[in-house]
Amino acid sequence: MKLKRLKIVEQIIIISLIGVLVPSVISWMVINNVSQHSIRKELGNSATILAKIIENNIFSVINSDQHRINEIVIAINHIPSENQQNLFLKDLAINSNVFKNFDIIRPSENPDFDKDDTLIYNSSTEQLWLTDKIHDDKYLKAEVNTKIIKDNIFNNIGNEKDRRIYVVDKTGKLVFSHNYDETDFNKSVKQLPVNLVNNIATRFDEIKNQPRVYLKMDKIGLIIIVNTTKELTESTINKARLKILAAFLIAAMVTIMLTLFYCYYLYFNIRQLFKGIIALSRGNYKKQIVPLVNIFTPREIIFLAEEFNSMISEINESYRKLKQKNRELKQLDSFRSNLVDTVSHELRTPLTSIKGYTSRLLRTDIEIDEETKHKSLLIIKQQTERLSRMIEDLLVIPDIEGAKLNINFEPVNLLNVVEDSIYSVKNIENRTIENEITNDFPLILADKDRLVQVLINLLGNANKYAYPDTVIKITAKHDEEKATIKVINQADYIEKQVLHTLFDKFIRLDDKTTRTTRGTGLGLYIVKGLIEAMNGSVSLKSTEDNIFSAKINIPLYKEENYEA
After folding, report:
1. How many CA atoms lie within 13 A of 171 on its CB side?
2. Within 10 A of 349 (CB to CB), how many other CB atoms are there?
3. pLDDT for 492-531, tens place per residue?
4. pTM of the predicted model, to two decimals?
5. In angstroms, rounded to a whole number, what is the distance separating the alpha carbons of residues 233 and 43?
6. In a 3-state reduction of DSSP, which class is residue 1?
7. Which fold has domain 405-561?
């Protein structure tokens, strides 16, 4: 009798029953007997490994801090007077988040001080000290921030977070802990062997399925204790048998489902591949293959789909980069045209004034009185300052665009900055500017010179477009986090869609043909770039009652968050 050739689905079902279900039943019988012993041994091994990890972490942190102290000692040896040394250490303690305090110890004056003890822990005050010799008669003692050390010691214990971990000194006093339990801690310390083995993780089990490990760090006099909690034991050993049984039952059900659905998903993904190939052959280079990715999807099909999509993505990415380069070239050409136009139009006026008044002063065929000389020199100075500001604006643009601004953050007195800015602007325009900022305004965190440049640009804009004989006001208020500064003037209403474009380069309210005010069109663009570089924000507002305001938000200075 001729045998019937089986279909692929039938073959998969038979192979699944023979190759999965039968071995699963046999495996259950074996694993059920050895699982408890294996898991118990694994808990002990993981506790040993964890003790070694904590040991490495402690050594790493202590050595790192000791290296810092060595560097401080080297620095102290170059400071001649002890008073200067104390000031230096006090300043270090203020600005360090690792060390809380420094003391210079003389063994001759402190008989209890042990020269060979590089780590000192005071259990009554919970203070941890590291020491290093300055010279024979002087030692540096540094109090370490124990919270930072604890975070560094226990920050990489991963899946072992349910363990109880104690680090004690040689007298049995607690130094650091993780998941501290007073009863468990007292019991663990009491049950430690009398003669401890140095530098080797050693088990001292009292409860069969809750292994405990100690590791005595002889070099620095600390003992690490790692305990296995009852909860961890229950989640592993006591529940392992039920989990294994459930896993085998689920595996059997999944196997049956796999055999039923495998062919359908295989057919679906092959069809997706054919669609992608057909689309590519017809010139559609954006068609992505979206396979149905799950446990039924063969690796080869996923590989083919990823390679096909990668090829399509590279084509699209190359096209996108080409379009981006074209846009950049257009922007560069526009920038070049605007820059040439700005330079030719805006720089010509101050240069012409400087040249004219200089030539006038150099004439020998006429006699010029002192008042005329003074006025001419004043105009030359004003035009020179105007020219300097325009050049400074042009030079800062590449730094803004390249995110290369050098910002020198420092606590800044806002009143002084505003007064300097008003003085610079009033040297050119005799406009009334009211400063409503009081002397008790809190310090802000900013770059003083950059902030002066920002306010000069805002005051210059306000002066250009404000109605004649009107007042410009500068106000400021603050909350717990930031200061809000406003420059307010009276000017024509600007529509919102126009207002949002004023932060772009070379944008002006009047075009080349109707231009009535001086300027490069870069002021607000530079203001936005500088303020954002100082972690602030800037916005504009124009109301229909002809009030225009520029608002700056900038962080307040907070000593605890400031690093010089």
Report:
1. 8
2. 13
3. 988 888 887 887 766 666 544 334 445 556 778 888 888 8
4. 0.39
5. 8
6. coil
7. Heat Shock Protein 90 (3.30.565)
